[in-house]
Each structure stands twice: as C-alpha cells, then as structure tokens.
Design brief:
The complex is a heterodimer.
Chain A: H1 2-34, H2 36-39, H3 73-109, H4 111-125, H5 129-140, H6 144-153, H7 157-170, H8 174-181, H9 186-194, H10 199-223, H11 234-238, H12 244-249, H13 251-279
Chain B: H1 2-29, H2 36-39, H3 46-55, H4 62-74, H5 88-123, H6 128-142, H7 145-159, H8 183-222, H9 225-232, H10 237-274, H11 280-290, H12 293-321
The chains are: A mainly alpha, B mainly alpha.
Amino acid sequence: MKSGLLNDFMRAFQKNRQATFAAAILLGIIFFAIFAPVFATHNPTYIRLAQEQIQLPPTALHLLGTDNLGRDIWSRMLFGARISLLVGFLTMLITIIFGVAYGAVSGYYGGKLDFMMMRFVDISLSLPTIFLVIILASFFKPDFFGIAVIIGLTSWMRTARLVRGQFLSLKEEEFVTAARALGYSDCRIIFVHILPNVRALIIVNATLLVAQAVLLESALSFLGFGVQPPQFSWGSMLSASQQIIFLEEAPWTAFFPGLAIFITVLCLNFFGEGLRDAWDPKLKNIAS
Amino acid sequence: MANRFLRRFATLLLSLLVISLLSFTLIELSPGGAMARYVENPKMSEADRARIAERFGLDKPAPVRYFIWLRNTLQGDLGISFMTGRPVLTEILERLPATLKLMTVSFFISIIVAIPIGIYSATHRHSLADNLASACSFLGLSLPSFWFGLLLIYLFSIWLGWLPAGGMITPWFDPAAYPLLIRPFVIFWEHTRYLLMPAIVLSLSNISSWSRYMRSSLLDVISQNYIRTARANGVPERKVVYKYALRNALTPLVTLMGLDLPVFFAGAVVTEQIFAWPGMGRLFISAAGNRDYQVLMGITMITAVLVLLGNLLADLLYSILNPRVTYEG
C-alpha cells in the first residue's frame, strides 16, 4: 500500500510535468488572445486586394504572411484566438451546466424518472448530432454565442451520464441521509452537499470538453457554418484553403491557424489528463 | 433473445421518431422556417412566396405538415429538392454508395491498424513502442482532421504530385485502354489513389481511440483469473493471448465501434468536403448552404437509420462474441 501510493504519486508527478508544461503554453495563448490589440501588427479585418499585397509569404512586415484577401495572418491569429477560445469556454460552461443538472437530477431521484431520462440520453447519443448542428447553424446564422449554445446543447449527454453515475452511489452515503434527516430541501442536498464531491470529475471533464468544443467549432467554421464574417476564428481562417488553388499558392494561410488549433487542443487534452491522474488515478478509465 | 431484439427494434423506431421530430422542429423554429431559402430573396414578391408555399404545401400548420412528411416518408417519398427539383431519395441514393465506399474502407483500415497496435501495446506494456503508440494516439485525437487533410493534400498532391487532391475517379478513365493482363491492377490503383488520403484522414481518430481501448481492454482481460489459470497450466503465452484473451477483449471494442458511429459519420462529412468526395456528406453541406430543408431532413433521417442499424449490428455481434450476455433495461 505504502510503496504503491508513493509509486502512484511519483507517476502522477511525472504526468503532471507534462500537464504543467501544457498549462504554461495554454496560459501563453490566453495571454496573447487577451492582449491581441497590443501584439497585432495590422488591422485583422483590413482587406488589401492589390496584387502585390495578397498571399505574401511570411516576412518581417507580415510575420506570418497575408491571406488571399491581403489580410495579415499574424494579427488574425491573435484575434481569431479570442473567438476560438471564447467559444470553447462558453460551450464547456453550457455543457457542464446542463449536463450536471440533468445528471444530478436523474441520479439523485433514480427510479422511473432516472430510467426515462437515461433512455433519452441513450437515444441522443446514438443520433448523428453533427447533422442537427449544421442544420441549426445554417438556418439561424448564429454569432459566436449562438455557436456555443448549439454545440453545447448537442454534447451534454456524456457529462450527464458521468455525473448521474456518481450521484447514484453518493446519494446512498450517510451524509446524505443526515442532510435529509435535518430536513434540507432536495435542491440543497444536490447542489450543496453532493455536488462538491463530484468536483474533481467535473473539472477534468470540463477541460476535455473545452478541447472537444474548440475542435468542433473550428470544423464548423472551416465548413462555413461557424462564426460568420466579419467575426472569425482559427477554423474560419482555414476555410478559403478548401480551394486547392489557395492552398497551392499560399500554404501558410492554412498551416498556421491549423497548427494553433492543434497545439491548443493538444495542451488542453494533456492538461485534462494531468488533472485526472493527479487527482484520482481511479478516474482513469472513465471516458470523457 | 428474440424478445431482446424486438425491444431494441422498438427503441430504434422511437429514436427515429425523436430525431425526425427534432430536426423538423429546429427547422420550423428558425427564421423563415422551411421557406428560409426564399425569404431573403429581394427579387421575389410576397405573392411569389405565397405561391411557392402553397405549391409545396408549406402554408399548412406545422403539426399537420409533420404528419404529412411522416406519412410520405413511410411510403419512401422524402420530398423534392428545392435546388434541383428532383426527388430527395433519388439524390441521396446517388450519393450514398460513395459515402459507404469511403466509410467501409476507412473502417477496415481502422480495424487492421488499431487492433494489432492495441495487442502489441498490451503485451509489451511500457515498452518504447507502447509509449510511442500512446503518444501518437494522443496526437491523433487532438489533430483537427481538416487540417490533417489539407497537409496531406499539400504534401502528396501539390508538392510531390503523387495522388489526386480530390474526386473519386478520373472522369475519362477507361480500363479498356490497358492490356487485359494489367487491367485489374490499373483499375485497383485508380480507385486506391483517390481513396487513400480521404480514408486515412477518416481513420485517424478511430485508430487513435480504438488502439488505446484495445490495449486497456486486453490488459483488463489478461489480469483475470482464468488467464492466470491458463498460464499456470503451462499454456504458451501466444496461445493465451490469441486464443483465450483476445476474444473477450474484443467484445467491448465492438460496443465502442457501435457508439462511435455518429462520430464516424460526422468525420465523413468533413472528409468528403476536403477531398471533394461526391458522397452524401458533401450533398448535405451544399444543401445546408442553400437551406434546402427537404434534403437536409432526408439525409439526417437516412444517416440516423444507418447509425441505428449499425448499433443493432454491434449489439448482435456482441451477443455472438459473448453468449453470456443478458439483456437488461
């Protein structure tokens, strides 16, 4: 037991080193996103259509070059980070709020209600929700907040299931019986007494949800159904490169935003895994 | 057993009803609703719009229209595309084979790559190859598929010029132009070179998650008592892994494959768009751009049917691989 514990701790620490590194990079990205106007060298939406200003390769003037409309890619990366990260974060919040509430109610009350609610989760999980997301995005033409709502409303199911499982076992604990005996309302027992015990699980899940949301939003924006101009995210910066001619003439237009998405998602995943391992190695097998 | 699948089938029908109701309601609630395609057109008068609405039966109240749609769909009529004026079902059936081709090939690539990696990782735990596989799967899960696709296109189509950047087959490809002896190889290569990059992009996330899952599932099984008994009886390690453990380790993977189907279809939509693959996903994207609601509803329903049938198949396979399974819930 003792050596095992020490071993676990050492391993968690080692994993955590990666997670710390990932967290540092993430903080850097967030810092650049917040202070985007400071680091931007050009107006990110300013279009220069003159032949000698479009699709310039990276130079000292345009650090990462210009895209097919002559816009400065470095500046767009900075401002695009704001939307990408914001949508990721908002989506996570919506998913967590909805998923946790749903899972908590289902797990806490149990019985028939739980059965019905979980059947609905099963059905929702087996549906190809990407089609609903694209339908919604094409008909409503949402802004970044709308995108977050749309993605959030179609990805809460796994969180609900995770939380429900925890509530099912936690509600049998003595402290819940004690709280009931004291006459506290169900609402208070759920949120004040039981929920804090699920905190670690929720935070780990939330980190991984941000990663998934950033990926999904960028894919949506890449397809043209995400944030609409003049707003833009990293995903929409790649959109023009669907045309092979733009990809051929200016590969850097597609390369840098994609790299940013990749690194951000990778760091979020590392960070989430690190949190999970450090907090509770038992959680390892729980799918996110 | 029969009872079990009867219940599964009832759930399937219920799921289909839920998704049809959901997508119908979503379109209904959106600004412009089913007429969204025409609402923003400044060249159209109110009278034109009213005429179109009447012609397509869009002037009736929404619940009535839902039941009309449901009745028609049950009779195999998914309506008319606003874009082309052709029946939606015909349009979808034209595109479906391409999507199924891409997905089938990608599915088999995923299995052929993921399962051996998973087995090797589990049997050589914490070896260099295991750690490498683990790192690669982590990278694979974080890699945006569209970016990966564009990188492949840039590398193999633009820079090296080895593979075509998009499409499914050269329009003027004529196998008769080649001598009979090499003709099969030419046909095979013609299909393969178009299929290679899209199939790899679509397999990426499956390989990443399935190989990890295979590893942990096999490790779970290997730690069980009957495996220890087999080893204690002197059964060779190879036989222990492949004869006794593998079968039981594969069963949960089958379930995961079923659960991953919606994600797989989502991946197909993005992949088809990148590689100009003339499949259903690409049709869906263009229909969404044009807000062609009948096509959108049709594709959503067809995909839902395919996903749910896939789940049913996974369930069936599961009970064949694991006869002990009893059905609850």
